[in-house]
Input
Amino acid sequence: MASYNKYNAFVQDICNKVHDLSSDVCKISLSNTAPSAADSYATMIAAEISAGNGYTAGGTAAGSPSSSQTSGTETFSANNVTFTASGGSIGPFRYARLYNSTASANISWWDYGSNLTLSSGDTFTVAFNSGASSGSIFTLV
Amino acid sequence: MGLGTPATLGGTNSAASSATLSLTTSADAPAGSVIIVVVQQNAGSGGVTSITDGTNTYTQKFTRWDATQSCGLDVWSSVALGAQLNSGSSIVAHFSPNSSTTGIQACYCTGIDNASDVTNYTEFTAGSTSPTVATGTMAYAVELIIGCVAGFGAGSNITPTDNSPFTQLGAQHGYAAQGATVSMAYAKTTTTSSVTYAPTFSGTLYGDIAVVSFRGYVDNTLNAAVGSYSINGLAAFLGKQFILAATAGAYAITGVATQMRRGVRLLAAVGSYSLTGIATTLSRGVRLGAAVGAYTLSGSPITGKLAWRLLATAGSYTLTGAALVAAYFAAPAPYIRKVKAVLQKLRASGPTLGR
Output
């Protein structure tokens, strides 16, 4: 399972009430440039792969985001995100980055482990916590 | 959707000469799937002019005309279906000119590109019970390979047995008396290594064997681990040296009992305070420091001893004590010597006295 990597800005943005994860739109975008924890939102966006053949600039929203608290632990979850190449290839790419598109703030990223190019008809799914259709993204204790 | 597993749509054959051969499908072909059709005919080179099902477009992926045996082998595939093709639909092969000794076998498969990748064939006009053909190195790791054979045999239905990794999808015998045979099998790959189709037949067959591959779609998944964040507070120690800043007003300050020790100071702003404490034992060398004020000092009886001093600052004190035996006075030298002698004896055997 690909490790969760944190953008440093996220914890500061939490304290500065940048995020409203109960209503903001969070997206997964793809990149072939290794992210750094210190990356700003602008740096992250600039490293996105080109749009086309089924990949939309800015990536794809994680559907049905939810944030709930149980016994002092807040858990943010969403539906898995799937990209499907159509009419051509997508990529190459290696990194999936999660960000808040409403607030223009980066959150985290995962490393697929190797470069990947989707041929037409191929799919790439980011399965949160290996869920079949949805899963937890992070917890806050 | 990744590469699926092909499923047969059935097949049919005919020994009669006709411009068409129609297959009635035996299963639903789902939307998004691709239909693959293998046809045998003896109309001649280019004898199959089209395949139709009333809705979808089919394109020719492979064709071979064996003039020696008057046997043609064609492979066609549809576009990805926009809608399900229901069971009972007709898939029709069209011939020009008319063809006899025809056979058609069809299947559908999900998760494939309808553009073929590898096509290869082997002609075995001299006859064989075990013809072979290899794909050569594949362009993609994940592919669907259709292995097919069309030929004539020695007067009976000749049935194929497929080699691993191929699985039979069906065979037709359009003219049993001549051993007409068309068969269709499939294999799925996971590497680009060459795959050999080498079926064995129940009798000698004369014709062509071919392989046609279709790139399979690949589903890639990134299993994203859950992240965790924690908010930790620092412990706060509340105690002396903390200053309570307050504006003018009336405040009541209460607190837990505190033990006053030497060197510990209680700092307070202007106001009214009550200071109470527990009893303390005065010992030699211990001093009670106090600012100007009125104090009452009392204590338990004390035995005065030589060299003990009670130190006090200016003030009023009441000093009480036990009776003291005077032991030192002035006298002429002879009397002093006698007294010293007596005292020496008393020291040796009696109570302690001062000099």
